[in-house]
Amino acid sequence: MRTRVYSGGVAACLVTVLTATTASAVPAPGAPGVGDPYYPGDGNGGYDVTHYDVRLTYQPETDRLSGTTTILATPTTELSSFNLDFALRIQSVRVNNSPARVERDATDPTEVVVTPKRSLRAGDPVTVVVRYADTPSKVAVDGFTAWKRTDTGALAVDQPHIAEWWFPSNDHPTDKATYDVSVEVPDGVAALSNGVLTSRTEQRPGWSRWNWRSTEPQATYLAFLAVGDYDVRYSTAPSGLPVVNAYDTALGDIRPAAEASVERTPEVVEFLEGLFGPYPFEAQGGVVTHGLGFALETQTRSVYDAGFFARGSNMSVVVHENAHQWFGDSVSLGKWSDIWLNEGFATYAEFLWSEHVGEGTAAELARYLYDSIPADDEFWQVLPGDPGAENQFHPAVYDRGALAVHALRTTVGDEVFFELLRTWLDERRDGHGTIEEFVALAEELSGTQLDEVFEVWLFTKGKPEVGPGGAEARAAVTEPESYREIAFTHQQLAKRQ
């Protein structure tokens, strides 16, 4: 995980970057970051991206990646230059068809400063074409390489950063775009990404090109690439949406358990639609692979490490990652400190699934979890509402985060609670939001002042004196049947630390 020095007030930086005035006619450089409190160097100021066209050639034997990314963007202010987030070696950049000057920031090699031949006017569409070639597994940022080379290919899957190892971007969840991802690989090798496979072609002997399209806005860290030896399955969900599932051919004895879980994705999506509202994307599916170590909610097609299915089928992780298609993908974080909006609700969806299949109610799971962790455990010292960059994926963000959701539910009642979830997701679809905005909506819909419940469960260290079900809740006397599967799933997810 990258760490960068940050000075100055976050609020002031966000105002400067995100709402820079367009009244001035004097062009100025775009900001090198959006002022995120955890990763202030992430993203770039002065423009919004609408589309990425990523066209690549990848050779698994050498891990050589080359290609061209075309970025369609609109300046939000008059720009003399702008930044891209990218770590690989650049060959050339053209802006509106003219060659541009390219420089690396001396203090941060992922900051690429592009100076076009002519300044860019606010509101005028811009086309940026970046050609590049490199060996991603040999490129480190702050001593860390997110690109994962495997026995048969590679994985561009990670959180909170991955785009810098395979395409130049405005790398922050607040700037979402649509995507075309086209990857040429040797025959017999699969190249998987988000959305719908529009075609697979052979343009030269021994090579095939896989063309994927994502038609709904997508955050940069949710774009993924998985290249290797996969068995790819195509089907159609009862809803009519295409389903693409892929399994590493080296899964061995784990393969049946993986299939028994991931092939149920349409069933899980149907269940979640009943809670959250219509599925927000154009396709469904999952990829099961080796060499990842965790699972991630890559948009339309979550990626799972094989280890999740080592003990048998695992519906908890499938529910968790598909719940993220709403909480995290359709409605993304406003800043990385809002991680509870992703993980707390995806975890609570596991509780709701357990209740749905008769393996323990959400209330039983919440109470058992609360009772099973001693008050002096370090778990209670991590704040889900602001865990810090070093603890973004700590078990407390998942588990205490889910307890916070249950505490909210018992405070406002089921009718308001589920109305709140659907309203939040509907009003902010394809966008992003913050914890502060969620709290404001919860108070508006419930007509109740909710500072205490959020302060206690999200922002106060120590074990709350009253359990998540309130003072009247009875302690769970037996372990809910699904508890061990959920606990195992969260241990695996927390490996991103």
UniProtKB/TrEMBL annotation:
Q: Which GO terms describe its molecular function?
A: alanyl aminopeptidase activity; metallopeptidase activity; zinc ion binding
The chemistry this enzyme catalyses reads: Release of an N-terminal amino acid, Xaa-|-Yaa- from a peptide, amide or arylamide. Xaa is preferably Ala, but may be most amino acids including Pro (slow action). When a terminal hydrophobic residue is followed by a prolyl residue, the two may be released as an intact Xaa-Pro dipeptide
EC assignment: 3.4.11.2
- Residues of the Peptidase M1 membrane alanine aminopeptidase domain: 312-457
- The signal peptide stretch is 1-25
Q: Which GO terms describe its biological process?
A: proteolysis
PANTHER family with a match to the protein in the record: AMINOPEPTIDASE N, PROTEASE M1 ZINC METALLOPROTEASE
Q: What is this protein called?
A: Aminopeptidase N
